[in-house]
Amino acid sequence: MRLQQTPAPPPEGRPLLEVRDLRVSFFTPAGEVRAVRGITYQVDYGEVVGIVGESGSGKSVEAYAIMGLLQPPGRVVGGAVTFEGEDVLAFSPRALTTFRGGRAAMIFQNPMTSLNPVYSVGEQLMEALRAHQKAASRREAAQRAAGMLERVGIHNPERRMRQYPHELSGGMRQRVMIAMGLICHPKLLIADEPTTALDVTIQAQILELMKDLQRQTGMGILFITHNLGVVAELCHKVCVMYAGKLVEQGAVDDIFYRPGHPYTEGLLRSMPRLDDQERRRLIPIQGTPVDLLDPPAGCPFAPRCPHAMEVCLGRMPPYVELGPGHRSACWLRVREGLSTSPAGGEEASHG
Amino acid sequence: MAREILKRIGTAALTVFAVATLTFFLTRAVPGNPFLSEKNPPQAVLDALNEKYGLDQPLYVQYVKYLGNLLRGDLGVSVKLQKDYPVARIIGEMFPVSAAIGFFALLWAVLLGVPLGCLAAYRRGRGTDSALQVVCTLGVSLPSFVVASLLLFAFCGGIAGWKLFPTLFQAGDWRSYVLPCFSLGFYPMCYIARQSRASMLDALGQDYIKTARAKGLRTGRILFKHALRNALLPVLTYLGPQVAFTLCGGFVVETVFTIPGLGRYFVQSISSRDYPVILGTTLFLASFLVGMNLLVDLLYQAVDPRIRLGREAA
Ligand SMILES: Nc1ncnc2c1ncn2[C@@H]1O[C@H](COP(=O)(O)OP(=O)(O)O)[C@@H](O)[C@H]1O
Ligand code: SF4
Ligand SMILES: [Mg+2]
Fold first, then answer.
1. With a threshold of 0.80, does the pTM exceed it?
2. How far is B233 from chain A (nearest CA, A)?
3. Cis check: omega of the bond before A73, within 30 degrees of 0
4. What's the domain count of chain A?
């Protein structure tokens, strides 16, 4: 990969972001909703990691936890989030404000509502910069903001900065959001379904833009989507999330060509492909996701899995290493006699 | 834009005209006469008075004459309360008294109500919020004569050693203004606090607040820059007409504290059927209201760029 502007060389062996056995629950009147139930993965410097899963699988909640954006009744109930060696979950409110938007930025699904309607685009961009670089004068900030807009492909940035969000199209607004996220040169960008609300041609443009920006800046990206197709474009690594758990993770090729979990296979079958000559029928995954108020003891996918066995209902499958960096939690793989990892999904079933 | 404003002013003038017409005929439809009182004067005197003020003529003649005078800016003279004194001068003398009290009443209502509402929204569900909710619910359900009378009793001699304020209103003495301002502003304060809390909660739940937090902004900025500006619109909507009503005087408060204000006088004019005074004060209030609504529309645009007079952007 061509990196024009590499961030500080990563300290030996230390990942940019490390998420270990993270658990998040919402304490609602109906009970504890276990939205995230012990997930472990890491993002290296300059790496693009995709998190894929159906709507409601806990992707956004997990991202909020990393950014310290969870609000009551949601709370991290276990695990650790480490950013460049620092414990994010232990940050003070003050430290969080420098972390957010400074070292790690986040953009959201709906560009139509993510910008404040009553402030101009320029004002909101400059504010993002000045929140972290107090010394920057208004003029400097304006210049940086205009430069940033140009980098995300917005022409005539001075005019755009004077405009209000409602005067911009959805794609344009998402570009503004990206510019706002990147204005302080974060090392990690969390993109929560950034293209889901856009129409297909704009989606492709935004993905292309993110790919370019990632190459130019060398930042790490955590790319959240429910669309496996989008992942292939952009990501190095993929985590497949189901009912608050990562059921499979691996390099993009592993996931696409050697899927090791029936849920991943289902996602692949239900995914439209551009190179599809035979016009295969898309097969949606049957059934509905599990109830996170009372998650099952066994494999959460069992009620919908065509291969479900007796053991699947009773116990959570452990992680099985399918190859370097490729693992999945499925009893089928255990049966195949591959080596299991004791610290995997098995342990995660107690939470 | 300029055309739009002109159009609005035209509509406003029409509204005031409609109010004038309605009020004119409604006051006449109510039984009674300015000159009939407990003493029942002789018929000859009544006839003379009716003739003097033109009340003997057919109603439509009176109406046309009234409108004619109105167009020349003449509101006529009082026929009963202050015989032959021009209505315009009455308003000119009484409005400042009411307006001074109303202004300070609304000032404290806004300056306290908005921040309290924000605070309650920010600390929603916790002790501060609940306490404020109780006070404000009480505030909007207590009739103002109860608040005013309680205050008058407590601080004007009812409780030994607590006589902090004069019982009789003295224009120019600041101590005479404290309790009226408090009583008059209490309801709007509570109302504004509730309103700001609700609209603040709504604003705080919006996606752009999440963006603001993700940018690393401090809580104060998020609350007072990003949420408040969006939350202000409903408060403005309430404040517009409220300014007109409050500045024209609250009848109850002016009565309890014996303030020679427009609000009290207006009610007196109704009970004594002083037609020109009723019409004059009503028209004054109506014009004020219409003007405030126009002003609110203009302010809306200053607060929210999506709103443009005449067209509302999606
Ligand atoms: N404020 C909340 N209160 C209760 N439950 C919530 C709340 N927010 C999210 N959840 C739960 O967390 C689950 C995961 O949500 P989310 O992370 O938004 O899913 P997605 O993968 O679509 O981003 C939801 O199914 C819901 O049950
Ligand atoms: S563990 Fe069993 S139910 Fe779960 S995915 Fe594997 S085969 Fe299906
Ligand atoms: Mg989501």
1. yes
2. 11
3. yes
4. 1
